[in-house]
Amino acid sequence: MKYGFYPGCAYATAAGYRPSVEAVCRRLEIELTPIPDWNCCGATVLFSVDEFKATALAGRTFALARQHGFTQIVTGCNACYTTLRKAGDLLLQNTDYRQEVEQRLAAESLTDPQPLPVRHLLQVLLDDIPAGTWQQVTASHPCQDLPVGGYYGCQMTRPWEPMAQAEQPDLLERFLTRIGFKPMDHAAKTLCCGASHCVPYGNACNPLVTRIVRGIHRQGANLIATICPLCQFNLDQGQHRTRDLPRLPVLFFTQLAGLAMGLPPDTLGLDRLLTPAQGALNNQ
Predict the structure, then answer these.
(1) Which of 241, 255, 274, 282 has the greatest number of beta carbons closer than 10 A?
(2) pLDDT band at 53, cuts 50/70/90?
(3) Is the pLDDT of residue 276 over 60?
(4) How far apart are CA 38 and CA 7, in angstroms?
């Protein structure tokens, strides 16, 4: 299976995200082909500063993807996912925006910024890989039924995503169950972790991180599973800024998938986590 892949700016530097994605996709024979010359999407911040420029950045991504024959775009970042979907809606609804974007892209010989379907990598692994395939590749699961708290962050389920259960999403829980973990229900799964504010305003964001980590810990989870590079960073490093906060390793869903497959931890980037995962994995 081949997909047009939009990495996003945080993908390469996130704690073990890229190696775990690559390792899992190799095992599943998924080919994520980066969109050539892709640019930053502007994240969600740029929309509050200049809506047109944010839309134009996404329009260029759509045009590049179309130019190279892709019929859909897959990303592993919540901010990229939301931004591309939001910009796609604006390109469809706002004729003035679309025409102006087309004029600007003409300088690069790009002609078609019409939006393409945008999917999160989690959706691909859950919807495009048969349950039977997962059963085969996780047959010798070393961490069977380990309790995990899924954390979506505040972007994926916002209004631009037509989820049937936006306030209580279950994509991650269904995926964790499929690969052999035990998802623990909790009330913090879509709370904001502070996003980019955690860098300049870390102290102000500490209560946000504390609420999320404590909420997951109270339900008996040994680990936190996340689907966003910034969420992973904020929850992982935020635990070390607050006294008396439970230390829960924060892993990407692809790292957990790799563990379920029996892949070596070092190939999944587990050594890059600030809160080591080995203790939680050994004491299941």
Answers:
(1) 255
(2) very high
(3) yes
(4) 8
